[in-house]
Amino acid sequence: MRSSSTSVRGLTRRELLVNLSGAALFAAGPGLSSATASGDWHAAPDERPFDLLVQGGRVIDPSQGLDAVRDVAIREGKISRIEAAIPLAQARGVLRAEGKIVTPGLIDLHTHVFPGVGPFGIEPDLYCVRRGATTVLDAGTSGAFSFPAFRKLVIERAETRIRALLHVVSIGLVAGNTDNMGELLDLRYCDPRLAVKVARENRDLIVGFKIRFSNFLTGANDVAGMVRARAAADEAGLPLMIHIGGPTSPLRELLSRMKKGDLVTHAFNSRVPGLLDEGGKLRSEVLEARERGVLFDVGHGGGSFSFDLMEKSLAQGLRPDTISSDLHAFNIEGPVFDLATTLSKFLLLGFSLSEVIERATINAARAFNFGAEIGTLKPGAEADVAVFDLREGDFTFTDADKKTRTGRQMLAPFATVRGGKVFRP
């Protein structure tokens, strides 16, 4: 559980008015009444160039090296201007952000947002866009057999922008982590040709492949699975994400087959074999993979992130390229909660606010081809904006090994802008 010596502050009258009007205020478009939470405006709607103004927040956008108080103006679903002072009368709606942190919409590279198929899936909008993550990557919940349903029933209906890593095993995660039912225990389901076929038919949404390597999921089939996953990724020309969590075979057998742009998730867990050898040193194959351009992702999850291992890795110069949550049904009540809480754990580990935001915005955007300009607030980019309170106090954070640390700061979602709408947590 996360706890704090400070209570959640009460809403101001101005914030209350914005909350009461909610998403409907900002979704109303040109026909919005001139009476709003920001005061009475008398200009005709067609004389106001912006649909929404996010006003007065501390904007942190690592893609532009920006950390300053700015206004962010949005028009027709795109970032239009970002300047020190934009007149309120130029916007049809305003989101007050004074004293808050404003960032590009967060990108979570590891989630499970396919509810109803297997045990892991959660409703995307409740836990993602309403908590600052405008874009999420579903990490292999669906395989070739179930992706058509995932597309039709979840992705196309969600307010959250969802892209998918297709599990190379055609049944995906339908069995979850059930004993003796790991998806790689029967290699007949691991069909790279079928995976490539479905990926090609859905290139607008499938941006890579996923495969999991833990001994209870694979038995002795981990290397054979890796060979097939490599073949699928090469044939389709897409990156490969692998999950490491105590594989049966030596880690070198898996990492040696990874290429530039591939990604290791759950990288910083305490399971054996992991990034560190028996003496606590980074394995040579890990350093070789990093040198080749393989990316290392957090993928916190319920069992895949260790404060201790993370600190040992940092001390030896290995920092995560991206920070993701591995948010699923078994960790939304802790220890993960959401991506913002995961990012907050890295503040207590000594990362700056800008370094944390960078790993969940522009770094994540560059890891895969999402088909949209995201992870930035540059004019012309998608109008994905996240607004947070940066709370000060004593906050208890828990890793996947149930070890706790106390941090002094926590990012708390306040509002998110996605597709011209404002969402509240």
SSE map:
Layout lengths: L2 E2 L8 H15 L7 E2 L2 E2 L11 E10 L4 E10 L2 E6 L10 E3 L4 E4 L1 E6 L12 H4 L5 E7 L7 H7 L7 E7 L24 H10 L4 E8 L1 H4 L3 H15 L3 E5 L6 H5 L7 E3 L18 H9 L2 E2 L10 H9 L23 H10 L4 H7 L2 H6 L17 E14 L5 E15 L2 E3 L2
Parallel strand pairs: 4-7, 4-8, 9-10, 10-11, 11-12, 12-13, 13-14, 14-15
Antiparallel strand pairs: 1-16, 2-3, 4-5, 5-6, 8-16, 16-17, 17-18
Features:
about 425 residues, alpha/beta, Urease, subunit C, domain 1, TIM Barrel, 2 domains, 9-stranded mixed β-sheet, about 25% helix, globular
Detailed description of the structure:
It is a single chain. The protein is of the alpha/beta class and 425 residues long. Helix content is 24%, strand content 26%. The protein is built from twelve helices and 18 strands. Strands 1, 4, 5, 6, 7, 8, 16, 17 and 18 form a nine-stranded mixed β-sheet that branches. Strands 9-10-11-12-13-14-15 form a seven-stranded parallel β-sheet. The protein is globular.
